[in-house]
Protein backbone atom coordinates (compact mmCIF):
# COMPACT_ATOMS: atom_id res chain seq x y z
CA UNK A 1 0.00 0.00 0.00
CA UNK A 2 1.13 3.54 -0.84
CA UNK A 3 -0.16 6.80 0.58
CA UNK A 4 1.07 10.21 -0.56
CA UNK A 5 0.69 13.66 0.97
CA UNK A 6 1.89 16.68 -1.00
CA UNK A 7 3.61 18.93 1.53
CA UNK A 8 4.68 21.66 -0.90
CA UNK A 9 4.40 22.37 -4.61
CA UNK A 10 5.67 25.89 -5.17
CA UNK A 11 8.08 27.34 -7.69
CA UNK A 12 9.83 24.45 -9.40
CA UNK A 13 10.04 22.11 -6.37
CA UNK A 14 7.58 19.58 -4.97
CA UNK A 15 7.91 17.76 -1.62
CA UNK A 16 5.80 14.64 -1.05
CA UNK A 17 5.53 12.53 2.11
CA UNK A 18 5.10 8.87 1.19
CA UNK A 19 4.16 5.88 3.35
CA UNK A 20 4.92 2.39 2.03
CA UNK A 21 3.77 -0.85 3.62
CA UNK A 22 6.23 -3.62 4.43
CA UNK A 23 6.50 -6.04 1.51
CA UNK A 24 5.37 -3.46 -1.07
CA UNK A 25 7.18 -3.76 -4.42
CA UNK A 26 6.61 -0.84 -6.75
CA UNK A 27 6.33 -1.05 -10.50
CA UNK A 28 9.30 0.21 -12.49
CA UNK A 29 8.84 3.97 -12.67
CA UNK A 30 10.30 6.58 -15.02
CA UNK A 31 9.55 10.30 -15.28
CA UNK A 32 11.22 13.44 -16.66
CA UNK A 33 11.47 15.10 -13.23
CA UNK A 34 14.63 14.75 -11.13
CA UNK A 35 13.99 13.18 -7.73
CA UNK A 36 15.70 12.91 -4.37
CA UNK A 37 14.27 10.49 -1.81
CA UNK A 38 15.06 10.87 1.91
CA UNK A 39 14.33 7.90 4.20
CA UNK A 40 12.60 9.09 7.40
CA UNK A 41 11.67 5.64 8.78
CA UNK A 42 12.01 2.03 7.68
CA UNK A 43 14.19 0.24 5.17
CA UNK A 44 13.94 -0.38 1.45
CA UNK A 45 15.86 -1.59 -1.55
CA UNK A 46 16.15 1.07 -4.24
CA UNK A 47 17.03 0.06 -7.79
CA UNK A 48 18.06 2.87 -10.15
CA UNK A 49 18.97 1.65 -13.63
CA UNK A 50 20.13 -1.69 -12.21
CA UNK A 51 22.18 -0.18 -9.35
CA UNK A 52 20.60 -1.62 -6.16
CA UNK A 53 21.11 -0.13 -2.70
CA UNK A 54 19.60 -0.82 0.72
CA UNK A 55 18.49 2.47 2.30
CA UNK A 56 17.91 3.15 6.00
CA UNK A 57 16.71 6.20 7.99
CA UNK A 58 18.81 9.25 7.12
CA UNK A 59 19.87 7.90 3.71
CA UNK A 60 19.08 9.62 0.41
CA UNK A 61 18.77 8.43 -3.17
CA UNK A 62 19.09 10.64 -6.25
CA UNK A 63 17.13 9.62 -9.35
CA UNK A 64 18.17 11.43 -12.53
CA UNK A 65 15.60 12.54 -15.10
CA UNK A 66 14.12 9.65 -17.12
CA UNK A 67 15.94 6.95 -15.12
CA UNK A 68 14.11 3.67 -14.58
CA UNK A 69 13.75 3.00 -10.85
CA UNK A 70 11.93 0.69 -8.47
CA UNK A 71 11.56 0.16 -4.71
CA UNK A 72 11.03 -2.93 -2.57
CA UNK A 73 10.06 -2.23 1.03
CA UNK A 74 11.90 -4.33 3.62
CA UNK A 75 10.44 -2.53 6.69
CA UNK A 76 7.44 -0.16 6.59
CA UNK A 77 8.71 3.20 5.34
CA UNK A 78 8.09 6.90 5.54
CA UNK A 79 9.89 8.84 2.81
CA UNK A 80 10.20 12.41 1.65
CA UNK A 81 10.34 12.65 -2.15
CA UNK A 82 11.57 15.92 -3.64
CA UNK A 83 10.90 16.52 -7.34
CA UNK A 84 12.01 19.25 -9.72
CA UNK A 85 10.18 20.43 -11.65
CA UNK A 86 6.82 19.75 -9.99
CA UNK A 87 5.15 16.47 -11.00
CA UNK A 88 1.85 17.60 -12.45
CA UNK A 89 0.61 13.99 -12.59
CA UNK A 90 0.81 13.78 -8.77
CA UNK A 91 -1.01 17.10 -8.42
CA UNK A 92 -3.81 15.78 -10.63
CA UNK A 93 -4.06 12.56 -8.55
CA UNK A 94 -4.42 14.54 -5.30
CA UNK A 95 -7.49 16.47 -6.47
UniProtKB/TrEMBL annotation:
InterPro entries noted in UniProt: Bacilysin_H2HPP_isomerase, Cupin_2, KdgF, RmlC-like_jellyroll, RmlC_Cupin_sf
CDD domains, A to Z: cupin_KdgF (cd02238)
Residues annotated as domain Cupin type-2: 18-83
SUPFAM superfamilies, sorted: RmlC-like cupins (SSF51182)
Protein name: Cupin domain-containing protein
Domain of life: Bacteria
